[in-house]
Structure to design on (252 residues):
């Protein structure tokens, strides 16, 4: 497959996103594999076909408020509360033009089952208190047991899984209003915003009920921005990009 047409289409989406953020003074940084690509390849990782961005929660929510009216109409925001089949706590900015999608697939020979998009991940704060963190983990585990009872019936291969499902049925009284997958996602969304990014020593991305935080790291990593080359443009990276990548991937 020739990924160059895919990269070009993705960077067009990113360019519109970046222009909007700059016009409204919203903070964002290149993230995950896209950050590795920036540092190591000055562009995409050669086999990568997606693009990731971090935004502090405050900027992320502001972006969602203004995106629909300010982005080109062919760019759609896919998020948990506007898409029936989508239950993740990050959003996608997706190019909805069928002709662009078909031309990109044809030119690249690459299947793109999720279309042409960029992923935007909100950064949330984590409590500085060990007690609060332990309490939040306990709450999450209880809610996951309830989720297991409703949506993972009989999926277990261990005694622990069967016990979790049984306890989930017993916990129904704790969560009378939580019955659908969207109800669980809404609860996770509320929990992820408990501690302001700006006032927390540690921050991270709250991913799933089963796993909780995908990662946490010192908030000082995001205390400034360093612009690095990416193809023929420059992209904003967190000032502590080396520490973040080392903690996330080891010898990246």
């Amino acid at each position: 497959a020739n990924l160059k047409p895919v990269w070009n289409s993705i960077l067009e989406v990113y360019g519109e996103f970046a222009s909007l953020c700059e016009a409204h003074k919203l903070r964002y940084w290149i993230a995950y594999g896209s950050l590795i690509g920036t540092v190591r390849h000055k562009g995409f990782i050669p086999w990568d076909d997606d693009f990731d961005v971090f935004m502090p929660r405050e900027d992320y929510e502001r972006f969602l408020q203004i995106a629909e009216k300010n982005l080109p109409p062919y760019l759609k925001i896919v998020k948990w509360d506007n898409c029936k089949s989508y239950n993740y706590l990050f959003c996608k900015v997706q190019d909805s033009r069928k002709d662009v999608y078909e031309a990109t697939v044809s030119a690249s020979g690459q299947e793109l089952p999720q279309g042409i998009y960029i992923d935007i991940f909100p950064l949330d704060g984590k409590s500085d208190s060990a007690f609060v963190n332990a309490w939040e983990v306990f709450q999450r585990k209880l809610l996951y047991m309830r989720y297991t009872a409703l949506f993972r019936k009989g999926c277990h291969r261990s005694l622990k899984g069967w016990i979790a499902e049984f306890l989930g049925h017993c916990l129904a009284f704790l969560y009378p209003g939580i019955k659908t997958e969207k109800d669980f996602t809404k609860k996770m969304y509320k929990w992820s915003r408990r501690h302001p990014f700006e006032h927390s020593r540690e921050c991270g991305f709250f991913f799933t009920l089963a796993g909780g935080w995908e990662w946490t790291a010192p908030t000082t990593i995001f205390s400034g921005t360093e612009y690095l080359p990416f193809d023929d443009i420059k992209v904003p990276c967190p000032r502590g990009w080396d520490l973040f990548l080392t903690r996330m991937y080891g010898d990246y």
User: Anything to note?
Assistant: The chain has a mean pLDDT of 95. The two ends are 25 Å apart (CA to CA).
